[in-house]
């Protein structure tokens, strides 16, 4: 797989991640800064490192399943490995400017 194809797949993944919302927060997981890394391999395997707003987030299973369903539907994605990480710890400074505005932090 060439770099152009990998970049297109990553862009399509980001578009899908922007459709995944925490049921308690009206902002998508990508804009919230919960996605730390997206790694697309030459064979179509994708690894996503993500975190939660809190380690005990009650929506964690829902979020991860929604991400799995949507990312696996992206053309070119052959497999998906979602790693839940808590380093670095998430804080509101990781949110996009739009997310901060939406939630009243600006």
Walkthrough of the structure:
The protein contains three helices and three strands. It is α+β, with helices and mostly antiparallel strands. A three-stranded mixed beta sheet has the order 1-2-3, with helices on one face. Strand 1 (35-40) and strand 2 form a beta hairpin. It is globular, with a radius of gyration of 14 Å.
Give the helices and strands, then pairings:
Layout: H1 3-17, E1 35-40, E2 45-50, H2 60-72, E3 79-84, H3 97-102
Parallel strand pairs: 2-3
Antiparallel strand pairs: 1-2
**Content of β-strand:** 15-25%
- Class of secondary structure makeup: alpha+beta
- Largest beta-sheet details: 3 strands, mixed
**Which assembly state applies to the chains in this document?**
single chain
* Beginning-to-end CA distance, first to last residue: 42 Å
Average pLDDT number:
94
Strand order of the largest sheet: 1-2-3
Strand element count: 3
Low-confidence stretches: none
Essential attributes:
3 strands, alpha+beta, 3 helices, three-stranded mixed beta sheet, 17% strand, globular, 106 residues
What's this model, at a glance?
This protein is an alpha+beta fold and 106 residues long. It is 32% helix and 17% strand.
